[in-house]
Design goal:
The protein folds into two domains: 62 residues, no CATH class; 57 residues, no CATH class. The protein contains five helices and three strands; from the N terminus they run H-E-E-H-H-H-H-E. The protein has a three-stranded antiparallel β-sheet with strand order 1-2-3. Keywords: Signal.
């Protein structure tokens, strides 16, 4: 199963270094006092959501535009994020019957959610009426497979 994912080149490799302090009841001759064990764990994660090899041909471009790149040319670096541009993502074209903007409706939902789930007990009775927040652009849910190595 893992071989298929390796041959498609559409697999992410994940590694993590772990340090575990294992106390021994009886010290060994090789390590009379050492209780620290170093382990590297890894897994393969097949890339989903219709990702293709062409989608992955961006490493050079990302590094060229990274502020972490010590050799980056200043003109290649993108400008700092503009919060006002972020607020215009998914601009509304039609007026909502409530008169509230989408982000204001979401903020109101978060406040109601907090009251219903974490506020005084009185508000618990409104759980079923709360519903879910408004969906704008939903990414399809795909179960991620993981292959330990």
């Amino acid at each position: 199963m893992g071989g298929f994912f390796l041959t498609t080149l559409l697999t992410s490799f994940v590694f993590d270094n772990l340090d575990a302090d294992i106390k021994r009841l009886v010290p060994t001759a090789e390590n009379p006092n050492s209780t620290l064990i170093h382990i590297t764990a890894g897994m393969l994660i097949p890339l989903e959501h219709g990702i293709t090899l062409d989608d992955l041909q961006c490493s050079d471009e990302l590094w060229k535009k990274s502020k972490l790149n010590p050799y980056a040319i200043p003109d290649d670096l993108p400008p700092n994020p503009d919060v006002y541009k972020l607020m215009r993502i998914h601009e509304e074209r039609e007026r909502h019957p409530s008169g509230l903007l989408r982000r204001t409706r979401f903020n109101a939902w978060v406040i109601l959610y907090t009251l219903v789930h974490h506020g005084p007990g009185y508000f618990r009775k409104f759980r079923r009426e709360l519903g879910k927040p408004e969906v704008i652009e939903q990414i399809p849910l795909v179960k991620t497979r993981q292959i330990p190595v």
